[in-house]
User: Which sequence fits this backbone?
């Protein structure tokens, strides 16, 4: 293989990035040719069929004679070996000068060169760029695998080892020792994950020099004009290059304008701001980051660190890969799931935080957890809260998504949705109307809103779908009036708290807390059902057996989960048998009393801070702590029904389709049996089954027999005269 000197030429720019890359590999070819020439001239036997498979006596003697750092070809022409015919050093120097000159001409002409961009972005030295090319060559042309195997005297060593890379770059052992530092783990090539070191499975104890070098797959694709992220990030990352929507769909225009103004005012030449965006999902955090990136002429690189676990990739390693790819594409970085990186004290690992601070573009940490960066920083750090929209904005968002739909006033008032939830619920409402083939109506809006409320509360409580109306419940007029006043209070909250300014006067207690007190079966659960139906909200009945724990602190944790999930579920919380958990505080006699009182005090505060509807139901009002009653907006007594009310209960609980015999006397039943509504419903249902078994209408005897069984179940004294016709 002969090499001739490169003649001087007119300096012209490269046509494109790939032409520049191939020219760099042509410079590498000179290095490889020089190495092969030295190897042949200094004793390598290319015609030996068993070369690389054994060590001969002559070879051992040669190794002993080379001394420390010696090599048959690596370190120039020393040790008395044969001289070379070609001055490869001069040829290499001329080739590299031409490559550098044309690189500069291309950059001056505005030709985008990805290899030059990579070297500049990661501040690589010329030697580090050469190492990158050495490791990259087999990815582009398989012939380099055979050439590297030849130079490494082993047909199985097709990838360049650290030793081979250093030997190709240096001509003395001292220089080799100096250059070795750039391939340390904290060197730029490995620390930025541009290169990876690896060994084969049979040589896990290999020395550092025997480790092989491989270019990261996404770096290979980038240098070949591809736009793909690291394969290990595929399930958790995305590169958003399209411009954001105008006007913004989720983030408040005022907040976005302020962010853009601060970013413009605070950005430094090399260190734009680091942001912490906090707020519920769907409040426009990513959209705001997208606009900031677009303002800087950059794509947005999104990464969910919590999703990396599915790819069996540690979050800190995923962050390093993301920072590398983000630099390659000059992207603003948007990180979610970053909370998993915090230690037990809520601090970011210093090494990773330094990497974020060193990132040259905008960084946004997004989530729901508050956090404050410690220590001095080289760039501004801004905490930005993305709140849930108020009622006027929620109404405007509904109208924007459903311009031809019904008035969204009611659904906007009852469901404290984020902009993202409103967009999804509006789409579902349209689907519901299309399925029926009818125009969109308010019922579609409420059904869609309930479907998109947080469903995780169902794992903590029993969801009751409202099925009763005002016509189904029988209560005294004043009790019914109180229930209607409660419904009106919920409906008018946007007016009172918003338009009339009471929101600014009250820090807590803006929800609705009510007490339903009365004997079992008097209609407390049914009343909550009716209210939920009238408001178009779901009703969740809290399972106290799963809530209360004998372990200290566990009840508070369970309650916190309930209220946290309920805040996004837009539901009514119904605590039945509430005195079991909201009972009176007692005199402190031991540690258990003290913790029990702390538990009750915590629940008082949590209930007061909740903005939704909470209903406490109890059979014995006197058992409740007085502090709870002070925090109640309504206290509704459910009296035991009188005969006239009981007769109405008998009548309204029999479906119109039920066949009744002429002797079914509800007036008689109401006068004879002093029962609450729950027991009356049980009797009616049992009588219906008895009549169905007899294949006839429901007669008075069926009701009487069912009443007898209800008395037996309740443990009441059986007076035979009550159950005779």
Assistant:
């Amino acid at each position: 293989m002969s090499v001739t000197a490169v003649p001087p030429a007119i300096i012209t720019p490269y046509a494109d990035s790939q032409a520049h890359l191939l020219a760099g590999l042509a410079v590498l070819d000179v290095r490889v040719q020089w190495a092969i020439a030295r190897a042949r001239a200094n004793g390598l036997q290319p015609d030996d069929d068993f070369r690389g498979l054994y060590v001969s006596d002559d070879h051992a003697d040669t190794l002993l004679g080379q001394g420390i750092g010696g090599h048959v070809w690596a370190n120039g022409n020393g040790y008395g070996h044969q001289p070379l015919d070609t001055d490869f050093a001069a040829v290499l120097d001329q080739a590299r000068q031409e490559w550098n000159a044309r690189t500069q001409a291309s950059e001056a002409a505005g030709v985008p060169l990805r290899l030059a961009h990579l070297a500049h972005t990661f501040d690589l030295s010329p030697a580090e760029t050469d190492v990158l090319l050495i490791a990259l060559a087999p990815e582009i042309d398989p012939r380099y695998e055979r050439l590297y195997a030849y130079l490494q005297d082993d047909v199985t060593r097709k990838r360049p080892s650290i030793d081979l890379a250093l030997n190709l770059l240096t001509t003395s052992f001292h220089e080799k020792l100096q250059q070795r530092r750039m391939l340390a783990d904290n060197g730029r090539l490995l620390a930025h994950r541009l290169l990876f070191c690896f060994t084969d499975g049979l040589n896990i104890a290999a020395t550092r020099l025997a480790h092989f070098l491989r270019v990261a797959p996404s770096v290979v694709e980038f240098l070949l004009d591809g736009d793909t992220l690291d394969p290990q990030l595929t399930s958790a990352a995305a590169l958003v290059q399209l411009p954001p929507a105008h006007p913004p769909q989720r983030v408040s225009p005022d907040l976005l304008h302020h962010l853009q103004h601060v970013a413009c005012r605070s950005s430094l030449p090399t260190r734009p701001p680091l942001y912490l965006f906090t707020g519920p999902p769907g409040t426009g955090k990513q959209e705001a980051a997208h606009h900031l990136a677009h303002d800087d002429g950059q794509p947005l690189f999104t990464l969910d660190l919590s999703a990396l676990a599915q790819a069996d990739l540690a979050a800190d390693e995923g962050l390093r890969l993301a920072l590398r790819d983000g630099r390659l594409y000059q992207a603003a970085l948007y990180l979610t799931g970053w909370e998993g990186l915090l230690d037990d004290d809520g601090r970011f690992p210093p090494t990773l935080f330094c990497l974020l601070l060193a990132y040259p573009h905008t960084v946004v940490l997004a989530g729901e957890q508050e956090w404050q960066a410690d220590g001095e920083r080289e760039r501004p750090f801004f905490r930005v809260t993305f709140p849930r929209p108020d009622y006027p904005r929620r109404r405007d968002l509904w109208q924007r998504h459903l311009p031809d739909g019904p008035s969204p006033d009611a659904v906007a008032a009852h469901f404290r949705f984020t902009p993202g939830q409103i967009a999804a619920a509006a789409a579902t409402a349209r689907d519901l109307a299309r399925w029926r083939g009818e125009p969109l109506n308010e019922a579609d809006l409420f059904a869609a809103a309930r479907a998109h409320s947080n469903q995780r509360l169902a794992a903590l409580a029993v969801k009751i779908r409202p099925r009763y109306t005002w016509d189904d419940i029988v209560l005294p007029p004043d009790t019914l009036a109180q229930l209607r006043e409660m419904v009106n209070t919920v409906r008018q909250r946007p007016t009172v708290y918003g338009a009339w300014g009471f929101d600014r006067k009250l820090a807590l207690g803006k929800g609705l807390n009510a007490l339903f007190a009365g004997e079992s079966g008097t209609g407390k659960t049914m009343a909550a059902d009716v209210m939920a139906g009238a408001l178009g909200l779901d009703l969740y009945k809290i399972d106290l057996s799963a809530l209360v724990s004998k372990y200290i602190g566990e009840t508070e944790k369970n309650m916190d989960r309930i209220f946290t999930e309920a805040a996004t579920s837009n539901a009514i919380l119904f605590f039945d048998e509430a005195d079991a958990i909201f009972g009176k505080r007692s005199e402190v006699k031991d540690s258990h009393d003290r913790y029990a009182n702390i538990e009750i005090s915590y629940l008082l505060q949590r209930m007061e801070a909740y903005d939704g509807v909470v209903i406490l139901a109890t059979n014995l009002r006197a058992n409740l702590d007085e502090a709870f009653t002070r925090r109640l907006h309504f206290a509704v007594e459910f009296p035991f029904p009188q005969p006239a009310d009981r007769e109405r209960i008998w009548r309204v609980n029999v479906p119109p389709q039920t066949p009744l015999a002429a002797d079914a006397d509800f007036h008689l039943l109401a006068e004879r049996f002093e029962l609450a509504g729950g027991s009356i419903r049980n009797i009616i249902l049992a009588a219906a089954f008895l009549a169905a078994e007899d294949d006839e209408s429901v007669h008075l005897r069926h009701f009487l027999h069912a009443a007898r069984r209800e008395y037996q179940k309740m443990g009441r004294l059986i007076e035979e005269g009550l159950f005779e016709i």
